[in-house]
Automatic annotation (TrEMBL), chain A:
Reaction it catalyzes: a quinone + succinate = fumarate + a quinol
Alphabetical list of NCBIfam families matching this protein: PRK08641.1 (NF006392), sdhA_Bsu (TIGR01811)
Enzymatic class: oxidoreductase
Cellular component, GO annotation: plasma membrane
Name of this chain's protein: succinate dehydrogenase
Membrane-topology annotation of the record: Peripheral membrane protein
GO molecular function: electron transfer activity; flavin adenine dinucleotide binding; succinate dehydrogenase (quinone) activity
Domain Fumarate reductase/succinate dehydrogenase flavoprotein-like C-terminal: 482-632
EC number annotated for this UniProt entry: 1.3.5.1
Compartment list: Cell inner membrane
From TrEMBL, chain B:
Keywords on record: 2Fe-2S, 3Fe-4S, 4Fe-4S, Iron, Iron-sulfur, Metal-binding, Oxidoreductase, Tricarboxylic acid cycle
A Pfam family it matches: Fer2_3
Cofactor(s) listed in the protein's UniProt record: [3Fe-4S] cluster; [2Fe-2S] cluster; [4Fe-4S] cluster
UniProt lineage: Bacteria, Pseudomonadati, Planctomycetota, Planctomycetia, Pirellulales
Coiled coil: none
EC number(s) recorded for this UniProt protein: 1.3.5.1
Keyword Transport: no
PROSITE patterns referenced in this protein's UniProt entry, alphabetically: 4FE4S_FER_1, 4FE4S_FER_2
Protein name: succinate dehydrogenase
Residue stretches making up the 4Fe-4S ferredoxin-type domain: 156-188
GO molecular function: 2 iron, 2 sulfur cluster binding; 3 iron, 4 sulfur cluster binding; 4 iron, 4 sulfur cluster binding; electron transfer activity; metal ion binding; succinate dehydrogenase (quinone) activity
Organism this protein belongs to: Roseiconus nitratireducens
From TrEMBL, chain C:
Provenance organism: Roseiconus nitratireducens
Presence of the UniProt keyword Zinc in the record: no
Swiss-Prot/TrEMBL keywords: Membrane, Transmembrane, Transmembrane helix
InterPro entries (alphabetical): SQR/QFR_C/D (IPR034804), Succ_DH_cyt_b558_Firmicute (IPR016002)
Keyword Membrane in record: yes
Record field: compositional bias (Acidic residues): 270-279
Gene Ontology CC, one term: membrane
Renumbered residue ranges of the record's region Disordered: 262-292
Lineage: Bacteria, Pseudomonadati, Planctomycetota, Planctomycetia, Pirellulales
Bilayer-spanning residue ranges: 21-44, 64-87, 108-127, 171-198, 210-231
Protein name as it appears in the record: Succinate dehydrogenase
Length: 662, 284, 292
């Protein structure tokens, strides 16, 4: 058999697990990454990675429940077969990572220790100190280094992926990438290409993500014709530290241990926080939710903090939006014992001791559930068909998408500690699929016509040269445009979404896009020119930004991370039981009607001539677990649930009857 | 430490930032002075971001933005290493307020000293990763198929290994180590890229592996399966540029941002190589 | 791991063994020798007899002495010093920039190595003379070098120290000796890490304490040795010589000390006479025995 070669773009958890699996299958890999793969964004993940395990099994847990929690958490927007497959693979993934040397925390007896994470009742989450993502990434990085030493892997680090190469039939035959040091642009012919380039947090300016998470790679595939799905689903974490360069994650446990959230009642009170008397402090969570206080669920905390700053103008800092998260009433010794680690992070980056001075926090963009659309082949038992070439292939033949940059697994909202799992799982699982795809092809990477390669390169070279020279008189600065983009996106398309704001944002973003297309660069050199690399990724943020905004605008409902107050389903108001029951029936009708309309994946295709995405909708495979309402905190939840269960039972009985009679 | 209250502590209106620049490998370095507005809670990354957006020196000259490298911005990725006020460290966790306490005159930014400069503050740290290959810093598993879990490990083993496993390959330890020299080669006229790379690797492989790699070797020698390569790792550590080069200056452990117990690893490696060497002599 | 056929140099290939040997030699025999040597010298404080007896003891192997001297001192020293210089040359001292204690100690290890090199060269020239060719000794004697006479141990040492206004040599010795004490003791500590004796930071801190104590003791000994050689005046030396001469005569008489005039003190004019008269002695002097 001839040599096989795959280009993997991106060296996070997804890209590295794919690379190592492909190398094991005897396929040579060219691994392309913006940064040395060991520095990929996956290192930032702290919490852990989920799987059902021997311990939880004995408490009634199983893979199916993990699957169920995931789709329920995702508000049923996730196609179920891939999620099911992932949940059933999860224990194997942990086992493998254990064998690869990940120093998971251990129990006294030497088993892998677990903790509980949001959205589940079971202790499913394996963790390695507070740096699980880092540890997982390093284990994979080490295996890839081993394959590199064997000659199966060539790394191209500090290379920017510029776009896929497609032949006349549309099949992806490789990629074009640029050396960020020498600025050389060159073609990498391949039998298949895997894109594993992570999230797109930088579209929002600052987020909890790394600076590499521009989404540019996904956008370049999008612009080349790949579909982008569920773009509007962006997860926002309620408590992050708003640094001027990055929003760093602050663990929820600070509130769990008694942290109080407040702002001064007087806007932009210039007094030091400790000089503001209690009567002039607005403990808004405690006042608005007397029952839950500061421990309201994540999404509510996020919305309220956002609301206080954006709509009430009560941000603590006039320049930046933030509120106080106050721990200073708790004795220092207790703080050190319970929260030492996370307080040190705050102190390290803010230079302020949170034991003495309230922390400043604000919600921050954290994860993109959406991403490149990818196919799959359903197996007879409702999972994925192992080795089927179409698993995770985008609509461009031979171009695969895995990891955070694909859209499967997390639906409308991601469960904590599931993302690391989905990244590693997709990397491992797609190996045989890609291998089989390559076997099914008559032409390999060595047969790509030279003109196909050179055309692709010269197209990118033109773009590059144009950027350097075309706008000598413009005074558009890419860094400033990026700031503006981030501001617009953060205001309109994070926590609370309103149609008028979204419309305004679309207009502004269109304008910014045009300005971004004629930036004038202060560096026009041809040696490690970061200016031009950044300008390109900035330009490529716009297709994604527009998709997010457009998708959000068209989705008139609340689902998972997508929250539109104007389309919120109301609580039940009636006191009378019969009336209440009737309202519940109505509620369920409305829920079903809404699902019929909106329980669909948003599919975007990019039209390069109009520079706009075109949206369409695709049904979601919910064949394994029928959708049910998420009722947390709603008045009348109990009765709605009752009604819903009756309906579900009736439906099931009807189906069973139909089956038995047929 | 209590918050820097702008009313109590006098802060300058502007901050002077002196940057050592270099346009490319082999070019002469030169200094440029920038001035940015003081803001509270700045770190060096935000300072550099301001300079990039400004791209103007303190005397108003338009210049190419300073090139630098960063990633996570929370001190876990290892990208952003540079010398700040003469000391190597991560720039994302270098807070301007703290730096001004040490030296309120100006901030001085220089690239790392032991790696070839690519441009301005960006250096080429390939050698650091190559060292990890030299000591075979991986677990030699049979396959990536599902073979059940790994061996059980005592908590104490995990607690010994976890800190070592946090090494983010930033290179601070190498830059501060007086035994670690810079290796910078130039591509010869007519030499192919491949030939040049091969020559570079040869040079790397004769240079000091560095404390980070010694520590990784100890990490994997302490892993139930990783042990399988223990002998090969010790061979690498007793080969050219191995552990013997260490002169116990112990700067490595002092500057490591992850506080990795490097000198403990070095001493452990010292003992392991001693035993290994004696065994080899007698087993021959 | 290297992909090509390139062979590292002999030195690089055996660098590990060479560095370990370097480390070992620094302790045994060099460090050990220094301790014994300084203790012997310090015994002069107890009077010229004690010192002279010690020197007789050291010189008792007679013809074997040169072998011991070369095998256990000069060759190891040359090896250790040579490699030491190479190590120092390749170091990138940076204790100005990184002022951590251990880094300063590291730098001092190198500086004291260099000081030791200079000192030991001067020291051996000063007392021992280096080569034992008569013409050489005669020549350097004019510059006040090659001054030690084993059978007039104490007095010749004191006189030698008092050459050069009685200040130049004492200063050189003080600097050299203290440097070497530091070099040896700090070297002991680093060798403990090199060989893997003390591993954890706690163990290394304890080892530091032990080394400080050892260093203090050795400093006292070395200062005693220094003082014993430096403080007596020329007049004291004449008195010492009388004692030594008596011991020599008694020793020769009882057969305990081989008769070797060349190991005794003579006026320089006397030496020149001897050269003319006794050809045979010239030859045998070429391989003179060490002092204490
Ligand atoms: C602060 C934080 C904490 C988190 N904690 C958890 C957690 O506890 N549990 C959990 O399950 N998930 C967590 N997540 C989410 C999880 O970390 C990510 O979803 C996951 O790491 C994504 O991995 P990836 O492999 O898809 O992409 P990444 O790790 O982002 O890697 C992307 C790769 O693509 C490369 N790349 C990008 N663009 C280009 C281009 N144009 N050209 C070439 N290469 C390119 C990059 O260099 C990089 O190598 C967290 C996320 C954040 C932000
Ligand atoms: C106050 C300190 C010292 C005094 C008084 C002293 C004295 C002497 C004397 C009297 C000799 C004999 C010379 C000869 O035999 O011709 C000698 C030789 C020597 N000394 Fe010292 N010494 C001192 C310190 C040191 C130190 C610190 C070292 C370091 C190791 C050292 C190393 C040597 C060596 C290598 C020789 C030559 C060896 C030989 O002759 O065999 N000395 N010293
Ligand atoms: C004559 C010139 C000398 C020079 C140039 C010299 C140089 C050095 C240097 C550079 C080192 C550091 C080695 C390393 O870090 O790996 C060293 C270590 C050492 N030296 Fe010397 N030295 C000299 C003489 C001596 C003498 C006379 C002694 C004994 C008294 C001695 C004892 C030691 C010891 C014990 C070590 C420690 C070895 C280790 O760290 O493993 N040295 N020397
Ligand atoms: S050991 Fe510490 S200083 Fe060295 S590379 Fe690793 S993290 Fe950086
Ligand atoms: S600084 Fe260098 S000399 Fe050794 S102890 Fe650390 S590696
Ligand atoms: S940017 Fe990652 S360590 Fe500083």
């Amino acid at each position: 058999m001839a040599k096989k070669r795959v280009v993997v773009v991106g060296g996070g958890l997804a890209g590295l697990s794919s690379t190592m699996k492909l190398a094991e299958l005897g396929i040579e890999v060219d691994l392309i990454s913006l940064t040395p793969v060991k520095r990929s964004h996956s290192v930032c993940a702290q919490g852990g990675i989920n799987s059902c395990n021997d311990q939880t099994r004995q408490l009634g847990d199983d893979e199916w429940k993990h699957f169920d929690d995931t789709v329920y958490g995702g508000d049923f927007l996730n196609h179920q077969p891939p999620v099911k497959e992932m949940a059933y693979w999860a224990p194997k993934v942990i086992d493998l990572m254990d064998r690869l040397g990940v120093p998971f925390n251990r129990t006294g007896e030497g088993f892998i220790d677990r903790r509980r994470f949001g959205g589940t009742l079971y202790k499913r989450t394996a963790f390695a100190g507070a740096t699980t993502g880092q540890q997982l990434l390093y284990a994979l990085d080490e295996q890839v280094r081993r394959r590199e030493a064997e000659g199966m892997v060539r790394k191209f680090e500090f290379w920017d992926f510029l776009g896929p190469i497609q032949d006349a039939s549309g099949r992806c035959r490789g990629v074009v990438a640029q050396d960020m040091v020498s600025m050389e642009i060159r073609a990498f012919p391949a039998d298949a290409v895997v894109v594993a380039t992570g999230g797109c947090g930088l579209v929002y300016g600052r987020s909890t993500m790394s600076v590499f998470c521009t989404g540019s790679a996904a956008s370049r595939c999008f612009q080349a014709g790949a579909k982008y799905a569920n773009g509007e689903f962006i997860q926002v974490h309620p408590t992050a530290i708003p640094g001027s360069d990055k929003l760093r994650l602050m663990s929820e446990s600070a509130r769990g241990e008694g942290g109080r959230v407040w702002v001064p009642r007087k806007p932009h009170d210039s007094r030091a926080p400790r000089d503001i008397p209690d009567s002039e402090r607005y403990y808004f969570l405690e006042e608005r939710y007397p029952e839950y206080g500061n421990l309201v669920p994540r999404d509510i905390a996020t919305r309220e903090i956002f609301d206080i700053c954006v709509n009430d103008g009560l941000s603590v800092d006039p320049e930046r939006m933030c509120v106080y998260l106050d721990l200073t009433h708790i004795p220092k010794a207790e703080l050190d014992r319970k929260l030492g680690g996370i307080l040190e992070i705050y102190e390290k980056f803010q230079g302020v001791d949170p034991r003495v001075e309230p922390m400043r926090i604000f919600p921050a963009v954290h994860y993109s559930m959406g991403g490149l659309w990818a196919d799959y082949v359903r197996s007879h038992d409702g999972g994925l068909e192992p080795g089927a070439p179409r698993n995770h292939m985008t609509n461009i033949e031979g171009l695969y998408a895995i990891g955070e940059c694909d859209y499967h697994y997390h639906g409308a909202n991601r469960l904590g500690a599931n993302s690391l799992l989905s990244c590693i799982f997709t990397g491992l699982f797609t190996g045989p699929s890609i291998s089989n795809y390559i076997e099914s092809q008559s032409e390999g990477f060595e047969d790509v016509e030279a003109s196909v390669l050179s055309d692709a390169v010269s197209k990118q070279q033109q773009r590059h040269d144009h950027l350097l020279s075309a706008n000598p008189d413009s005074d558009e600065n890419p860094y400033l445009i990026h700031q503006e983009l981030g501001d617009v996106m953060t205001r309109a398309a994070t926590v609370v979404r309103k149609n008028d704001q979204l419309q305004n944002a679309i207009a502004t973003v269109n304008e910014l896009h045009e300005r971004a297309m004629k930036v004038n660069l202060s560096d026009t050199g041809s040696w490690s020119n970061q200016n031009v690399i950044f300008a390109k990724s900035l330009q490529d943020m716009f297709p994604i930004a527009k998709t997010i905004l457009q998708g959000a605008l068209q989705r008139d409902e609340c689902r998972g991370a997508h929250f539109k107050p104007n389309f919120q389903k109301p609580s039940l108001t009636a006191e009378d039981p019969a009336e209440r029951r009737r309202q519940a029936e109505e509620w369920c009708d409305a829920f079903e009607a809404n699902n019929a309309k909106y329980l669909k994946s948003t599919i975007a295709e990019y039209d390069c001539s109009t520079m706009q995405p075109k949206l369409s909708y695709e049904d979601v495979d919910t064949s394994l677990i029928p959708p049910r309402p998420r009722l947390y905190g709603l008045v009348g939840a109990d009765i709605i649930e009752e009604v819903w269960k009756e309906r579900a039972k009736a439906k099931k009985d009807g189906r069973d009857l139909a089956e038995s009679t047929s | 430490m209590i918050a820097l209250d702008p009313a109590e502590k006098k802060r300058p209106e502007f901050i002077k930032v002196r940057v050592k620049r270099q346009d490319g490998p082999g070019k002469d370095p030169y200094w440029q002075l920038f001035q940015i507005k003081y803001e509270p809670e700045l770190n060096i990354i935000s300072v550099l971001q301001r300079i990039a957006a400004l791209a103007t020196t303190s005397d108003g000259k338009k210049v190419a933005p300073v090139a630098w490298d960063c990633g996570c911005l929370e001190e876990v990725c290892g990208s952003c290493t540079m010398q700040i006020n003469g000391r190597v460290r991560q720039s994302c966790s270098a807070l301007v307020d703290r730096l001004l306490e040490e030296n309120d005159d100006e901030l001085v930014l220089e690239p790392m000293s032991k790696f070839p400069v690519i441009r301005d503050l960006i250096v080429d740290r390939k050698r650091l990763f190559r060292a990890l290959q030299r000591v075979k810093a991986w677990v030699p598993v049979d396959s990536y198929y599902d073979m059940g879990s790994g061996e059980r490990q005592l908590r104490s083993t995990q607690e010994q290994n976890y800190p070592l496993s946090q090494c983010m390959s930033c290179g601070c330890c190498l830059d501060a180590c007086p035994q670690y020299g810079k290796i910078e080669l130039e591509q010869r006229e007519g030499e192919s890229d491949e030939a040049f790379q091969a020559r570079e690797l040869e040079a790397f492989d004769e240079g000091f592996v560095g404390p980070h790699a010694i520590s990784q070797a100890m990490l994997f020698n302490n892993h139930p399966t990783g042990k399988a390569l223990a002998g090969e790792r010790l061979d690498a550590l007793t080969g050219p540029g191995g552990i013997q080069v260490c002169g116990n200056a112990q700067n490595c452990v002092s500057v490591c941002p992850k506080e990795i117990p490097l000198t403990t690893s070095i001493a452990r490696a010292g003992r392991a190589t001693t035993v290994h060497m004696i065994k080899k002599w007698f087993d021959r | 791991m290297s992909d090509s056929s390139h062979e590292p140099s002999f030195f690089l290939k055996h660098e590990f063994a060479i560095r370990r040997l370097h480390s070992l030699l620094g302790i045994i025999p060099l460090g050990l020798y220094m301790v014994v040597h300084l203790t012997t010298n310090a015994s002069l404080l107890n009077g010229p007899e004690t010192f002279q007896r010690a020197v007789y003891l050291i010189h008792s192997p007679g013809k074997l002495l040169p072998l011991i001297e070369w095998g256990f001192i000069f060759l190891p020293l040359i090896f250790h010093a040579g490699i030491g210089i190479w190590i120092t040359k390749n170091a990138h001292l940076n204790s100005g920039k990184y002022q951590f204690t251990s880094n300063r100690r590291y730098s001092w290890q190198r500086w004291t190595g260099i000081i030791a090199l200079v000192y030991l060269f001067l020291h051996i020239m000063h007392l021992h003379g280096g080569f034992h060719a008569e013409w050489w000794l005669a020549a350097i004697d004019r510059f006040g070098l090659g001054q030690f006479r084993p059978y007039n141990a104490g007095s010749s040492l004191v006189l030698a120290m008092n050459l050069g206004y009685g200040i130049v040599w004492p200063v050189i010795y003080l600097l050299g000796v203290l440097s070497l004490v530091y070099h040896f003791i700090n070297g002991l500590w680093t060798a403990g890490i090199t060989w893997g004796l003390w591993i954890s930071p706690q163990a290394q801190a304890r080892a530091t304490k032990v080394c400080v104590v050892l260093g203090a003791i050795l400093t006292v000994i070395s200062l005693s040795a220094w003082a014993a050689a430096v403080f007596p005046s020329d007049a004291d030396a004449v008195e010492m010589r009388a004692v030594e001469d008596r011991m020599y005569e008694a020793g020769v008489e009882s057969g305990m000390v081989p008769e070797m005039e060349e190991k005794r003190w003579h006026d320089s004019s006397e030496i020149e006479e001897e050269i003319e008269i006794e050809e045979n002695v010239q030859v045998s002097r070429g391989q003179e025995a060490p002092a204490a």
